[in-house]
Amino acid sequence: MFASIILLLICVVFIVVQLKSRRPKNFPPGPPVWPILGNILDLSLENPLKDFERLKKTYGNVYRVILADYGSSWKEQRRFALMNLRNFGMGKDSMEERIHGEIQYTVDTLEKSIGKSFSPQNMFHNAASNIICQVLFGKRFEYQDETMKTLVQCFTENAKIANGPWAMVIRSFTFQLTMYILDLHFAGTDTTSNTLLTGFLYLMNYPQVQERCQQEIDMVLEGKDQASSEDRNNMPYVQAVIHEFQRVANTVPLSVFHCTTKDTELNGYSIPKGTLIIPNLTSVLNEEGQWKFPNEFNPENFLNDQGEFVKPEAFMPFSAGPRMCLGEGLARMELFLFTVTLLRKFKFIWPEDAGEPDFTPVYGVTLTPKPYRMKVQLRVSQKIPNL
Ligand code: HEM
């Protein structure tokens, strides 16, 4: 008798779940859905990007996977983060000076490492983190500061937990506050530092690209103390290289998940209100037909026949639409000023004993290059008055 009641209950729950998740006729296609679990088992914990690629091949550009319900607290946190960032003075003119101030610490670190082989991971992470700390707390931390070290370590550890689709499941439980801080940290730090790490990995392994940047930088900045954002307009090649860093770095591969606020049509499919949308930026940044060289590191992707800088439509590492990255301006300023200032002063060399470079990224909420080591030399041909 007891067993029959349990069985009946299971059947009722099963039918309710099925009815609840009934979708419109024209809903995008996708893999078969398991009751309760949805499609969570179709996605790998380690790296769902390959699964998304596989699903795209089977079901086309718009397909559905069913995951856990997201809840509204997430949306509230985002709004809260946004408000905080706006209030704490992002995008003000003084930002450029703050970035230059931080770059000076990076230059000092590099000067101390001249001739040695060292890992740049913490250096870029600390620098990007300090810039966002200045935005959030109005102060920077010494690289050796214990608070800073603990902060970086905690965030790196948490980043491993908050991995891919499971992050949603975790988020919908109790880690609200941690996730909020994580959101801010990822937003301002991991993204920029991982892009720089990827960039310098490629610069060391494409020395001819590095040299061509340095020639352009020397020419445009001749007689100037330091670069400013406006110099971008006179550096088409450097611009192309930095954009190519971002394209291959593919730092936020699945962007941020969104939810439809009303019934919507997309590519002829009906998407009901309340559907979770996962934009696959990886597929746009590598799409055949959108890029001259989709599968290789090549700044020509952003240059026309006259050598002028052009930005193809498919370049959307900051995503698109009204919710696109709020820190784009700051991030682009950081990427430009760091790349230009460091390349002006140093030559970056892939250490002789480092073996073949491995460009395959490590998957997380952000993509990170595999840990690597670098060597630097002071450049002699620079014409810098005061650096
Ligand atoms: C190379 C660096 C960066 C990349 C590639 C990047 C990329 C992204 C992407 C893809 C999104 C999701 C947009 C969407 O929901 O459609 C995002 C959101 C966001 N980013 Fe960035 N980001 C970068 C740097 C920064 C920086 C430096 C900040 C500064 C604090 C920042 C702040 C934010 C914030 C606050 C959001 C949430 C916006 C919202 O929910 O409306 N990002 N970013």
TrEMBL record:
Keywords: Endoplasmic reticulum, Heme, Iron, Membrane, Metal-binding, Microsome, Monooxygenase, Oxidoreductase, Signal. The keyword Metal-binding applies. Its cofactor is heme. Heme binds at residue 325. It is a peripheral membrane protein. Belongs to the cytochrome P450 family. GO terms for molecular function: heme binding; iron ion binding; oxidoreductase activity, acting on paired donors, with incorporation or reduction of molecular oxygen, reduced flavin or flavoprotein as one donor, and incorporation of one atom of oxygen. It is found in: Endoplasmic reticulum membrane; Microsome membrane. One of its GO terms (biological process) is organic acid metabolic process. It comes from Gasterosteus aculeatus aculeatus. PROSITE patterns: CYTOCHROME_P450. One of its GO terms (cellular component) is endoplasmic reticulum membrane. InterPro entries: Cyt_P450, Cyt_P450_CS, Cyt_P450_E_grp-I, Cyt_P450_sf, Cytochrome_P450_fam2. This is Cytochrome P450, family 2, subfamily X, polypeptide 9. The lineage of its organism: Eukaryota, Metazoa, Chordata, Craniata, Vertebrata. Residues 1-21 form the signal peptide. The keyword Signal applies.
